[in-house]
Amino acid sequence: MTRTLVTRRRSEIDTKLASLDREFEHWKAVTEQPDRGLRRHHSQVRRLTATIDGLLDDLRKTLAGLPKDSPTVLKDGESWENEILAAHSIWEVFRSKLVLREDDLFRTALAACDDLAWECYAPALKRFDPERKGPPLVFLTATWSPFALARDSNFQNEIRVRRGPAGALAEQPFQEVLGRLPVPLVGVPWYQAVQLPSALIIAHETGHVVEFDFRLTADITEALEAAGLDHPDVWKEWASEVFADIYGCLAMGPAFAGTMSDLLTTAQEVVQKEERRFGAYPTRALRVELMVKTLELTGHGEGSKRVRSDWESIYGAMQTMLEFQSDVERVVKALLAGPYSGRVATGSETRLLEQGVALTTIISFPVDQDVTIKTIAETAALKQSLTGYDDPRLLFAAAQWLHANPEGGESPEAYAALTKQIVQKGANQFRSRGAVVGEKTDLENDLRPQEAKDRKAGSELRDFLRTVSEVKPASEGPQP
Fold first, then answer.
1. pLDDT at 143
2. Which pTM does this prediction carry?
3. What angle, rounded to 10 degrees, do the helices at 284-297 and 232-264 form?
4. Residue 160 near residue 140, CB atoms below 8 Å
5. Which of 67, 201, 430, 444 has its CA 20 to 30 A from that of 467?
6. Dihedral of CA 153/148/454/15: which sign?
7. In this structure, are strands 430-432 and 435-437 parallel, antiparallel, or unpaired?
8. Are 341 and 354 in contact (CB under 8 A)?
9. Nearest to residue 357, comparing CAs of 372, 340, 342?
């Protein structure tokens, strides 16, 4: 029996919708299997697919109630396809990053980066809102320095649709959409896979994601306003980057400051003459001052001295912006103390997530670990067993120590050994609510209520995209 144009059109739409279902089931199964190193992503996949299912629930119900030969498909088919394309556009952001984790060249390095992001993000997630987000997903990008996609980027859609929900998605600032999705994204340069020490910058970028996800900006602003600063307006512009640097120091200690110092290097005359009283970033020298002071105030006195000595051996003491030096300690103390409550929107209202805690209560790097970090680095350099060392943060710090002390035997093999050891601990871990979940049954009990909320969030995302698309000017429909 020959199909009519109506039934052929309906079949196309049904097939396109079903393609997502098949892919979702594939990734759920793959990330559940042991010994593939992908269990750390299982809750991410489950929650993302629940959100996208919620985005498409209304369309599924509409199609289920229509006869296969209903002419409605001719009138509404294009708008239905746009909703499917919107779902594909969101999923593609994550699909491409998951696929890369199946590539032998990048699998281990990405797993190590994922585990570092988890170690930096989980304490804040657990403290503020364990059910709101899953672990961050790290991906490789051509951008020069790491960035958190939550704040810096729009969807880079392969699908060039200029109308409907998919078209709205292509043009809206990414943070408006990502805020409704359960998985944060952190990008690092492609060469991060072969330069393990510089991956510590992930701690800074995770600080941005923490600020964004738990709406700490108001807390940061209030802390600075109460600090009695000489230049409050300038520090307010710099607040987000300063917070992220301080968060990085708390997450990774002196090793982070060493890595960030490497990233900040440039010609001597640039640093010595640099002045900036506008924009998002303090000067390079001021950022080093802020990190040094953070280390001093959090018990890493020797580490702070090393960072300062290393920097000043090239650039000397600060020569510009000296009027801001008196503010440095006040800024650091204010941002360490907070207090931080976090916020979440509930309907038209915003509620606090916490009664207010210091940043040092949320996350801190253990003090007096210099000997252990050096031992780990030298053990890796000597190609000896790293058994017994399973703290990813200490292993990453050891990579930075090895980079700063090549006499100890810096080599690709040593970094490879550290990377392998970093990922070993989390290779078969399920993660949810800011914690490791040991049993699959416990994971299911954790995920079911979260998935129900994610489906609802997906439905709200659908309404948001429809609203945005309705106010966009009309344009030509998609063409082959």
1. 61
2. 0.88
3. 90
4. no
5. 67
6. positive
7. antiparallel
8. yes
9. 340
Which amino acid makes up residue 244? A
Give the contacts of 84 (CB within 8 A, at least 6 positions apart): 13, 16, 17, 20, 56, 59
Burial (Cβ within 10 Å: 0-12, 13-18, ≥19) of residue 255: buried
> Considering only CA atoms, which of 283, 290, 274, 297 is closest in space to residue 327?
290
Residues lower than pLDDT 70 in the chain: 1-2, 142-175, 192-194, 344-351, 353-354, 407-410, 468-480
- State both tokens at 414: 């040593």
Q: Give the CA radius of gyration of the chain.
A: 24
- The CA distance from 247 to 335, in Å, is 9
CA 100 → CA 109, 193, 420, 446, distances in Å? 11, 12, 18, 27
Tokens of 385: 């067993």
Place of tokens 């780990």: 376
**Is the peptide bond between 339 and the residue preceding it cis, with omega within 30 degrees of 0?**
yes
β-strand 185-189 against 147-148: which pairing, if any?
antiparallel
CA dist 136 and 399 (Å) reads 22
